Amino acid sequence: MQIDVQKLENAVTDLKGALKDGLLATDIWDRNTGLSLSGFNTQPAAVALFTEIVNSLGDTLESSGFPGLDRYFFMNLQTGKIVLIVMHGTDLLQGVLMDSSKVNLGVLLSVALPKALSSVQAARV
After folding, report:
1. pTM of model > 0.70
2. Average pLDDT along the chain, 125 residues, taken 10 residues at a time
3. Is the dihedral of CA 10, 113, 37, 43 positive or negative?
């Protein structure tokens, strides 16, 4: 995989700008190695956990005859937190931890997520 890490850093900066203080943490990581390539308040344990969740969920959906995961999914956590997991192709994952009381879901889905998808794609060399 050939990635321009500075462009990933720019993607994280853009996400921080869009979500402001609603963004608690984000990591963009290599799905195969679990290595975080860029992030804000990085969470190595969460990277490992969400890699396993994405892999297990994908395998379970496939073996159950359900359609597979597409680009992203949400988890509504206790204490007012939301996690967005984004699949940037088959090799990169991104986790975004947010405070649900400070994030506008319309902005997240119509501005921040499309920008993150295109920014990470542009980081591929």
Report:
1. yes
2. 94 96 97 94 95 96 95 96 96 97 94 96 93
3. positive
